[in-house]
UniProtKB/TrEMBL annotation, chains A, B:
Domain Alcohol dehydrogenase iron-type/glycerol dehydrogenase GldA: 10-175
Entry protein name: NADH-dependent butanol dehydrogenase A
PANTHER family found in the cross-reference section: ALCOHOL DEHYDROGENASE YQHD (PTHR43633:SF1)
Keyword annotations of the record: Oxidoreductase
GO MF entries: alcohol dehydrogenase (NADP+) activity; butanol dehydrogenase (NAD+) activity; metal ion binding; methylglyoxal reductase (NADPH) (acetol producing) activity
Entry-linked InterPro entries: ADH_Fe/GldA, ADH_Fe_C, ADH_Fe_CS, BDH-like
Every Fe-containing alcohol dehydrogenase-like C-terminal domain range: 186-383
Pfam families, per database record: ADH_Fe_C, Fe-ADH
One Gene Ontology cellular component: cytosol
Organism: Clostridium fungisolvens
C-alpha cells in the first residue's frame, strides 16, 4: 500500500428532510449566500422554493444556468457576484457540475488573477470560500471530495483541478431528491460512479485489499440498485444506496494508497470537451472497450477478481473466458440501463480522434495509467467505441 | 436506511515515515503539547525518542502511565497538567486507551466540574482541546471517531462517552509501528475490530447495503491478514490493511444509517470493569456465544449472509447448519489467533454475573439491541462463556 493522506472532512447530512438543517449549517459561515444551480430543475421539484423559505433571514444572490459541463465563463461570473455581494458561503444545489463550478468560484474568489489559471494549475489554489451542497444527482462524488472539472469550449479544454481546501464543509443528501430524475441521468450517474470505482480498482498497486473490497461492494451496490431505481424511481432503498455510493466512490476510500493515473476519465474529458456529451454516457461507452483493449496476461488476474467478486460469475479454468464474460456483463449492464453505447449514436465520428488522443495522453498522464497508453492506443480505443 | 450524520473529519496520514509531518501538524494548534502515552512501549520501540527529536521547538508536558482500561483518575491528572501548562494540543501516542483518555482530558479541560460527569453524561461535552494521535495498535478505531471509554474502578463502572468535537484532528498511522506488538495484542486488536463491524452488521435495519458491503469487506480483511501478521509480524501488507481496517470499522462507515444498540460491547465493558481484562479478549469470548444465543428464525437470513459473504462458505439447503458453521468459524478463528476463549481461563467465575448482567442491560440499552436482551439473557450468555 502506498503512503497517502485521507481527509474526507465533509459533514454529510443524509436522509429525508435533512434540508431543515440548512439555516443552522449556513449560519456558521455567514449571512451572504451565493446560491448556485443549473438549468432550473430545482424550481420544478420544489427545492428552490424550499430553500427560499428556509433562508428568509439570509441575503441570497443567485448564480443560475450552470452548464452540465460547467464553463469557465460561468465561474468568472460567479466570482464577480461573490465580490460584489461580499459572499460568505456558496450553496451549490445540483449535481457535480454545479458543485464543481461552486468550488472553483470559491477558490478563484481568493485568487489574484484569471480563474482559468487555477484550473490549469491546481497548485495556485489557496484559500476557498466555504462550500455547502445540496445534492440532486448521484454521480460525481463532488459533494465529498476536492475535485472539480471545468470546461473552456473555445479551446476544447476540459480539465480537472483539485485542492484539499475545496472539499465542501457540509453536504445534504436527501435520496428523495433523486425521485424526479430523468432515467438517462440516473443511468449516466450510475456509470460515472462505477467508472470512479473501476478507475481506482484497476491500478498497479496490488496490496490495498481494504480499498478493493470497498470498491467491489460499491460496484455491487450500483449493479443491484440502478435497475431498481430505473424501474421504480421512488424506491427509497435504491436511491439511498446509490446516493451514498456516489459519495463513497470518490472520497478517497477506493483510491487512497493506490498509485497511478486514471484512463477512461481523461479520454472522456476529450469527448465532452469536443462534443459536450454527458460525462457518464461517455464513460459507459469507453469503459468496456478500454477493458477489452488492456486485457492481457499482465492484467488477467485482476479481471478474474472483478468477474467473481463484482459480477458474481462462477470461477472457471479459462481465465480469459471469465474476464470477457465480466466485460460483456459490464457492457450489457450499461446497455440495459438505457445508455447509448456507441459514439456513432451520439453523432461522433473519427474527425477529432487524433487531436483527442494526443490531448488525453498529455492531460491524463496516461503513461502512468494501470496499463500505459500512448496516442495510438487511445485512438484505437476510440475507434472501438464507434 | 435511517437518517444519519457522517462526519469523519480526521486528517489521516497513512504510511511509512508519516511521523515526519508531526511538527507541521502540531504547529497549527500551538506550541504547548500534552504528550499522552501508556506503559512505556513507545520508549522501547523508539517512537518516544523520535517525537522528542522532532518536537525540539515545542513545550512538552507528559501524561504517562495511561492504563489499558484508562481510569478517571488519570483523566483528572491530565486535565490538571493541561491547565497548569496552558496546553494547546494533546498528542496521544498509543492505542485506543491512550487516545480515549486524551479525548476526555481535552473535553474535561473546558468543563466546569468533575471529569466523570462528562463520561456519565456526554451531552455535557462542549469544546475540546485539539487531539492529534500517533497510532501504535490497530483495534479501537478511536483515532478516527468521537468515542471514548473510561473506567471508574471504585464503582466497577466502565462507560462510553462521545462527542463530535472529540474526533482527532489528525492521526498518524504508520503500519511499521505495529511490527513490535506482542502477538496477543495483535489478536485482541483484531477481535476488537471485528466486533465493531459485527455489532454494526447485525442490526435491525436491512436496507443499508453499502454499509453491509463495507462491513463484509473489512471482516474479510481481518480474517485474511491477522493470521499473516501473527506469523510474520513485519509483513507490511498485513499490518497496513489491519491498521486501515481498524479506522474504517468504527468511523461511521459500517454503522451509519443503521439504528439500534450494540450487544457484546456493553457486556464486555462489565467484564473489564470488574476484572480489568483486555477488551478484545472479552469480545472474542462473547461474540460467538452471543451469536449462538440469538440464532433463530428471525435472524437466520443475516447469518446466512455472514456465512457466505464473510466466511466464503458454500450455500446449502440447511440454513441453520450454515449459520452454525459460520459461528464455529468465528470461534475457531479467534482460538487460532491465540486468544483464550473461555472466562474460566481468565479466572472469572459466576460471582458477579448477576450484577454485571443488570448493569449491561441498563448501560447498554440492550432492550434496543439487534435481538433485545434482558438480564436473564445476558446471564445465560455469560454462562456460555465459562
Amino acid at each position: 500500500m502506498d503512503n497517502f493522506k485521507f481527509h474526507a472532512y465533509t459533514e454529510m447530512l443524509f436522509g429525508k428532510g435533512q434540508i431543515s438543517n440548512l439555516p443552522e449549517v449556513l449560519k456558521r459561515h455567514g449571512k451572504n449566500v451565493l446560491l448556485a444551480y443549473g438549468g432550473g430543475s430545482i424550481k420544478k421539484n420544489g427545492i428552490y422554493d424550499n430553500i427560499q423559505e428556509l433562508l428568509k433571514d439570509f441575503n441570497i444572490v443567485e448564480l443560475s444556468g450552470i452548464e452540465p459541463n460547467p464553463r469557465i465563463e460561468t465561474v468568472r461570473r460567479g466570482v464577480e457576484l461573490c465580490k460584489e455581494h461580499n459572499v460568505d458561503v456558496i450553496l451549490a444545489v445540483g449535481g457535480g457540475s454545479t458543485i464543481d463550478c461552486a468550488k472553483v468560484v470559491g477558490a478563484a474568489y481568493y485568487y489574484d488573477g484569471d480563474a482559468w489559471d487555477i484550473v490549469a494549475n491546481p497548485a495556485k489554489i489557496d484559500k476557498v470560500l466555504p462550500i455547502v451542497t445540496i445534492l440532486t444527482l448521484a454521480a460525481t462524488g463532488s459533494e465529498m471530495n476536492k475535485n472539480a472539472v471545468i470546461s473552456k469550449m473555445d479551446t476544447n479544454e476540459k480539465l480537472g483541478t483539485a485542492s484539499w481546501n475545496m472539499i465542501p464543509q457540509t453536504s445534504i443528501l436527501d435520496p428523495e431528491y433523486l425521485y424526479t430524475l430523468p432515467a438517462i441521468q440516473t443511468a449516466a450517474g450510475c456509470a460515472d460512479i462505477m467508472s470512479h470505482i473501476i478507475e481506482n480498482y484497476f491500478k498497479k498497486t496490488t496490496d490495498a485489499f481494504v480499498q478493493d473490497k470497498f470498491a467491489e461492494g460499491l460496484l455491487q451496490a450500483c449493479i443491484k440498485y440502478c435497475p431498481i431505481a430505473l424501474k421504480d424511481p421512488k424506491n427509497y432503498e435504491a436511491r439511498a444506496n446509490m446516493m451514498w455510493a456516489s459519495s463513497m466512490a470518490l472520497n478517497g476510500l477506493t483510491g487512497s494508497g493506490k498509485a497511478g493515473a486514471w484512463t477512461c476519465h481523461p479520454i472522456e474529458h476529450e469527448l465532452s470537451a469536443y462534443y459536450d456529451i454527458t460525462h457518464g454516457v461517455g464513460l459507459a461507452i469507453l469503459t468496456p472497450r478500454w477493458m477489452r483493449y488492456i486485457l492481457s496476461d499482465a492484467t488477467i488476474d485482476k479481471f478474474v477478481d472483478y468477474a467473481i467478486n463484482v459480477w458474481d460469475l462462477e470461477p472457471k479454468g479459462d481465465k480469459f473466458a471469465l474476464a470477457n464474460e465480466a466485460i460483456d456483463a459490464t457492457e450489457d449492464f450499461f446497455k440495459a440501463c438505457g445508455i447509448p453505447m456507441t459514439l456513432s449514436e451520439l453523432g461522433i465520428d473519427k474527425t477529432n480522434f487524433e487531436a483527442m488522443a494526443k490531448s488525453a495522453v498529455e492531460h491524463g498522464a496516461l503513461a502512468y495509467a494501470y496499463v500505459a497508453l500512448n496516442e495510438e492506443d487511445v485512438y484505437k480505443i476510440l475507434e472501438m467505441c464507434l
